[in-house]
Amino acid sequence: MNKNLNKTEGKGIVVESLSWHPPKNEKPVLNNLNCLIEKGNIYGIIGPNGSGKTSLVKNILRFIEPEDGNITLDEINLKHYKRRDLAKKIALVPQNTVLDSSFRTYDIVMMGRIPHQKRFANASETDSDMVQKAMLLTDCYQLQDKSVATLSGGESQRVVTARAIAQDTQWLILDEPTSSLDIKHQLELMDSLKKLNEKKGKTIIAVLHDINIAAAYCNRIIMMKNGQIHSNGKTEEVLTKENLNNVYEVDFEILENTRTGKKYYVPYANDR
Amino acid sequence: MKTSKVKKLGKHRNKNNLWQLIVLIFILILCIAISASFGSADLSVTDSLKIIASRIPYLGKYINLSVITEANPNYPKIVWQIRMPRILLAGFAGCGLSVVGAAFQGLFRNPLADPHILGVSSGAAVGATIAMLSGIGFGFLGLGVIGTFAFIGAILTAFIVYRLSCVGNKLPVVNILLTGTVVSTMLSSIISLLMTFNHDKIEKVYLWTMGSFSAATWDKVLFLAVFTVACCGVITVFSRELDVLTTGNDTAESLGINTARIKKILIIAASLQVGACVSVSGIIGFVGLVIPHCIRIISGSKHKVLLPLSGLGGAIFLIICDTIARNAVAPSEIPVGVITAMLGTPYFIYLLQRNKRREMLH
């Protein structure tokens, strides 16, 4: 029986014929989209601007309700989850991580524990342990007593990532997590996500703009175009010249990184 | 090693906040006693404290008022029947307005938010104006006609603003702020219009909108106390949600908070609180805006701490302001709203400057 349970849970997130368009907008952003996101992988969602990456993520997080179609998480329709229960399963690092409140960094990361806490309970040992680990992992431990309003863009990105990690969920969704980080912290963040995936079996879904970051860290790629899934599968199978050209309308040269053995993608504008 | 450091920091802050709470409660009691001794009949602070204590169940049995009543048999009456209702009314109003101000600043993620931002107070003013002009003569809950009408006006306005700013089941913050401001402006012009047709009542209406506690009664105190305990209680229960809401709507939802529901509950509780405050005292500005900021500078942004401390701070502040309002130019009075702004602004600027200097040092 236990095995059966694992099997059904293994299905992960199933998106069926999902359609959604923003209010007062004729053109649908998501158009009859089907997609399977399996547990235990690192997914990179890529695609040009306006292809519906963020809208898909927002639907999965139930920030917006689908007009048509269904999303199930662990075989249960998303609609039937209580917000709090959903927050125990999926954590988010949003696109905009600017924090303008006067909270201390430590307090912000501690907010990640809210779904696990009773209303009037104080932080437990587990809570502070989780927070500490998350802060060490994202290299923001030394910022713990700083006011978040004084943090740089990259620092607050790491703090918000720490909060999502402290939430201790099976699924971790990141919307452009590397956009405001310098190269060192980009790599460190992706390394720590990989570590979370390998050691704790967490499923990572990251909306990425940098194809090379996606290629280096993700073992699955979801490629989106015009509100639909263009292709969804293993990284090397999806990231082909044809697919990239088709989706981005830009020519790509695929080289090999001699040091890591990974593929390296260099874009060329068509008319040059 | 590092773990212990984290915990220490957290605990240290909690302890500080507890001390701040104790100190503020002590100051509040002191302020009540001092304020009760001020006035045309001159009492000492200890005498007024004794008179107040003699009315407290159980404690009262052990207090002997014979010395005071020998000096003037009316003293207990003056303190308990005339001064205390007014002091307590100011205290509850200050508490309610500050708590709502603190909650609104977090909820709307806007440091300029104050309890009157939803237009509730302007609605109350229209109600009060209508009552004053029409001369209707009934009231309920010990409020009197003007208070009753003001309360109805406040609640109606809150309802209208809320309905107008809903988009589906969502409640965008910008919508509420804009709708509240616009409705408030419209209601103010209605008052102006009503006043132009009734020149003889201009002074009365104007003075009401400035705010005053001069018409305090025990009935009003009871009315406001019930609302303050209930509404501030409800708001404080949602401290943690307010904390998360300051970091944005999406973040709050991803942390498992039903933001639409929380906003609805908070806005209803806040509107009832503001409506109750305004209907007993008129529109008193500044307390709800500035006190939460002062408390935030002293004790941080966590609403669990911020809301209760703001409540106490607001009560203290308004009691002091009202004491000045009724004594500075006795026997006539200065509108309490004038004092709040004149006293509060310099102190707030001082706190801001001190905070700036501190941050530069770090």
Uncertain segments of chain A are 1-9
Described by the principal axes of the CA atoms, the overall outline of chain B is globular
Structural class designation of chain B: mainly alpha
Q: State the domain count of chain A.
A: 1
Helix content of chain A: 25-40%
User: What's the CATH architecture name of chain B?
Assistant: Orthogonal Bundle
Structural class determined from secondary elements of chain A: alpha/beta
Secondary-structure arrangement, i.e. CATH architecture of chain A:
3-Layer(aba) Sandwich
* Average predicted confidence as pLDDT of chain B: 85
What's the CATH first level of chain A? Alpha Beta
Total domain units of chain B = 1
Strand and helix order of chain B: HHHHHHHHHHHHHHH
- Figure out the total of helices of chain A: 10
User: What ranges of chain B have pLDDT less than 50 throughout 5 or more consecutive residues?
Assistant: 1-11
Order of strands across the biggest sheet of chain A? 6-7-8-3-9-10
Q: Sheet bearing the most strands of chain B, described?
A: none
Can you put this structure into words, describing what you see?
With 272 residues, chain A is an alpha/beta fold. Chain A has one domain (12-240): P-loop containing nucleotide triphosphate hydrolases (Rossmann fold), CATH 3.40.50. Chain A has 10 helices and 12 strands. In chain A, the strands form 3 sheets. Chain A has a 6-stranded mixed beta sheet, sandwiched between helices. A 4-stranded antiparallel beta sheet of chain A has the order 2-1-4-5, with helices on one face. In chain A, a hairpin with a 6-residue loop joins β11 (251-256) and β12 (263-268). Chain A is globular. Chain B is mainly alpha-helical and 362 residues long. Chain B has a single domain, classed as ABC transporter involved in vitamin B12 uptake, BtuC. In chain B, α5 packs parallel to α12, α13 (287-299) packs across α14 and α14 (303-327) crosses α15 (336-361). The longest helix of chain B has 36 residues, at 2-37. Helices cover 76% and strands 0% of the residues of chain B. Chain B starts with a helix and ends with a helix. The model of chain B is unreliable at 1-11 (pLDDT under 50). In chain B, 48% of the residues are buried. Chain B is globular. Chain B has helices at 2-37, 45-54, 66-71, 75-107, 120-134, 144-165, 173-197, 202-210, 218-237, 239-245, 249-254, 259-281, 287-299, 303-327, 336-361. At the A-B interface, α3, β6, α4 and α5 of A face α1, α10 and α11 of B.
